[in-house]
Amino acid sequence: MLVVILIGVLIFVNVIMAFSLGLAAKPHKNVILENTLPKEVLEKPEVKALTKKYRLRLWQIAGIFSLLNFTMFLTQYESFLMTLFWLLLLIPMGAFYGTEIFYIRQVAQLKAKKGWQLPVTPILVDTKLTQTKNRKMLGFKYLIPAFILSVVLALIMLKSQNDNAVILSISLVVGGLISAGLLYSVKRLPVSAPTNDESINRQYNDLTKHDWSVVAVGSAYGTLVALAMPFFASQLSGVWAQITVWLLLILVVGFSFLLVAYLISLRKKQDALLSQVTEFRYQGEDQYWRFGVYINESDHRLLLPDRIGLNMTMNLGRPMGKIFMGAIVLLVVGVLFATLIPIYLMDFTKDPFQAALKEDELVLKAPFAATSEVKLADIQQVTLVDKLKSPVERTSGYGGEDYSTGYYMVADKKATLYLDSRSLPFLKITTKNRDYYFTFKEEQKTKQLYQKLVTKLQSYSKA
Known about the structure:
This protein has helices at 2-22, 45-68, 78-114, 127-131, 144-159, 165-188, 198-235, 238-274, 319-348, 443-462, and strands spanning 31-32, 35-36, 303-305, 312-314, 354-357, 361-365, 372-375, 381-385, 392-399, 403-410, 413-420, 426-430, 435-438. By secondary structure, the protein is α+β, with helices and mostly antiparallel strands.
């Protein structure tokens, strides 16, 4: 089942990458693949041939790697499976990005060869528009209800016995700050004068500011719902918990498609406005988009609209832009190693799961998982079981085909797992508020621990 899910995720990513990067080949503000062309050449056969070839290459990459994804069925070790997943995620991204850069330069070479250079126009300053640049955008007052609800929800989480209360509360705060930061960035965006028509420029700026502020505010409420539902699902039991989780997945996917559709609608409305004028003002910005991202040390803006019209991008020429990009790289590398190292340890070490029976407690450990110190006085029962009772829901930790570690809900009760699912039976330790499931890789060692623990508990109760 895990392999099927991973393959589905990879195919979905490939399709999204091919579709989203392909939009760069469709004219927007006279820009095709980061190159601004005269309006009269946008439909030239040479241009259309290049853009068609570019989109074809993207879908070829998506198709090839989608087929390669099925090699994941051939892996025997879970560590190899996850390594292959990361490779089939990152390598196609590099191929997509490299293809985009290649065709950006192809269009630039065609532009230079044909002499389609545009005269650089001076920046048009419209003081009236500058003074009222934010008149259509949503204000920060729209974030207040989301902020209040987030605070209330965070307090409820922290007072609960949920294993992920702290993480979810921090995520609420971070999500709210990101939404507020995005709204602030939209507010700070300078006015754009893509044409010589003041009326068109005003409509263009009002439209862009309004729609992007809607995205910023909507993301605040979307984050609130996305974090609230798993928390409340953990408080439910049985079929209602499963319904809540599935509803969350449907909402996340639906919100993602709605966001893309909304931004595509914004792009179409922008293009409709720009189609009303015959001239487009070119300010020589192509040189800053040579690698598909914006790099301009002399531009004070940190965030700005991308040239596709679907996103906000970061100026990597600014110090903060470099720091942010470096932080993303470090985060990806950190997640990669945090994902792979424990699985390699579980696959290729003799005793990845460890149990130490001490004088008055049992200590359970697993790679990159929280250590459990179970007081013998709290243990109500010790048994050997062949399977986990349904429903089994992971709240945090690792859950793969062979290994399960971390915090779970098992049969509607909190549980901590240290399991190799191929090694039966499992040792189940029952306490009032939580169950613990543990197994060594070797069946006999698990049974020996069970006998030692039973003997220890008998002597402990007599004492």
